[in-house]
Amino acid sequence: MLIGLAAHVHAQPVIKEDPQPRDAGYIGGRLIPILEIDDCRQLDPKLTQDQIRAQASEHYQRGETLYLQGDYDGAVTELVAAYCLSPYYTILKDIGQAYERSLEYEKAIGYLERYIAAVPPDARRANDCAADPKEDKANVARRTQVLQNLTAKVYVETDPPDAYITIANDSGTKANGRSRKQIDVLGGRYEMTVERDGYEPSTQVIEVGIGKPYTKYVKLEPLKGTLSVQVSPPDARVFLGKLFVGIGSYQAALPSGTYTISAEAPNRVRHEVQIEVLPGKTHRELVDLAPLPQTGRRQLIVAAGIAGGFAAGGLLYAFQETAIAGAGSVVGVTAGLVGAYFQTPADLPLGTSNLTITSSIAGAIAGYAGARVLTSKDEIIQPVFGASILVGGVVGYYVADRVRITPGDAALFNSAVMWGTGAGLLFSASFDPPRAVSSGLVLSGLGMGAVGGMVLTRYYEISRTHALLIDIGGLIGMAGGIAVSNVASTGDANAEISNERLANFALGGMAVGLIGAGILTRNLDLPKVPVRPAVGSATDSGGNATMTYGLTGTW
């Protein structure tokens, strides 16, 4: 309750204590607030002492009434006004009590400490009912100590949760605990540190009031690691997720976690990979963009037109009308071109296209030779020939699409079929057997080539260039064999012997050429030196780390 009376303003001497400076700040971590009595307005010099005392008494009485009514803010305003007019020390205690009731403990302590300092050594009781000033001073001092020991209730919400909280000041750690848990600490100014495994610690200054609740939200950032990406070719664009981050290379410190890195360049296959950045570590990623695979759409469209013409002409030859067969060939070419143009995917693999074309040709040869084994009638042979073209193409496309044959495997299979069929034709020319036997030799060569091609693709992996060089070797061998035969048979009048010898020499030259080319190109698809790109780090004389790029290997 208020202990001063309005009469004190008139009867007691005025005691003026030295005010605390406005920028007192903190003492021992506790806030020293600026008090209203340190900013009193200057008195009107025209007022007499009696007028001043009268105004002070009015303010004091209103302050007493407002205090009893529970309007502590209003009571403080009036009591401060009374003190500024007539600074009697007991009013300081009254203001302190009003602030205590409104839970403004810093201000309450400030005024009560002013009161303790302002009580004069020779202070006497105002009346017989009043407390002894010395005893009251001691009681207020103990009360002030109790208020100073009131703890603030600190509550910290963190993302992610379950973080460790440390509250400290210059004198050391004052409290600690976990997020989402109440932490009791004396009012004052502190440094609050929030820590959690895998995240950057967060430190910030907080000011907590005596006996007051304090809440804070802290979002922790994950610990960072370094991501370094080097891309070949150097003009490739690098993306972090969907964000474009650089050309040719990218290096940055990132919060630990999983990221998607992608790179793309003209005429290169887009590369995408997920990588994990670990805290305090450097993740180096070297990306080599592969060239776009060659497509076989254009050549398959052309081949489809040619195959359509032969197939339609052969099928319609069953009517034994040349005009109908010719017209059908034109329609077949058109149908083949249009159908392949609209039905063939734009990214058709080159291996699929190659095998489809070869299978179509092989089917045509198999159909034609097979029909000739059984009959010599063109009205039967030609339709079988036309149908075999279509069947061979469909089977080849289906198989190539299912096994996803590579261009190298397709080239190897094509070569085997071509040279197997060529060997059958040369054997047929060499022996000059009857029609059925001759066709059978061609079929045998075709079959052996197909089986040999499948076996070779099962155990060997070569490039198209390698297969082409072997084919060139076979052609050169055949040409050489024919040349040797012509030289050897110069002046021979027996044509049949010359034809047989020509076929024999061509067959032998073909074998020598294929074998020789295979031996000479056996290491074509192997690198000269087994090297691979590498990324590393080095430390200079100043102790700074830098990234290095190069090649590594053994030989």
Q: What proportion of the residues form beta strands (DSSP E)? A: 15-25%
Structural class: alpha+beta
Gross morphology: rod-shaped
Order of strands, main sheet, comes to 5-4-7-8
Main β-sheet description: 4 strands, antiparallel
Query: Rg, please?
Result: 51 Å
Distance between termini? 98 Å
Oligomer: single chain
The DSSP helix count reads 14
Helix fraction by DSSP (H/I, runs of at least 4): 40-55%
Average pLDDT reading: 83
Taken together, the total number of domains comes to 4
Number of E strands: 18
Instruction: List segments where confidence is low: pLDDT < 50 over at least 5 consecutive residues.
Output: 1-23
In words, what does this structure look like?
With 555 residues, the chain is α+β, with helices and mostly antiparallel strands. It folds into four domains: 6-148, Alpha Horseshoe (Serine Threonine Protein Phosphatase 5, Tetratricopeptide repeat); 151-219, Carboxypeptidase-like, regulatory domain (Immunoglobulin-like, Sandwich); 224-288, Carboxypeptidase-like, regulatory domain (Immunoglobulin-like, Sandwich), CATH 2.60.40.1120; 297-461, no CATH class. Helices cover 50% and strands 21% of the residues. A four-stranded antiparallel beta sheet has the order 5-4-7-8, with no helix packed on it. A four-stranded antiparallel beta sheet has the order 12-11-14-15, with no helix packed on it. The model is unreliable at 1-23 (pLDDT under 50).
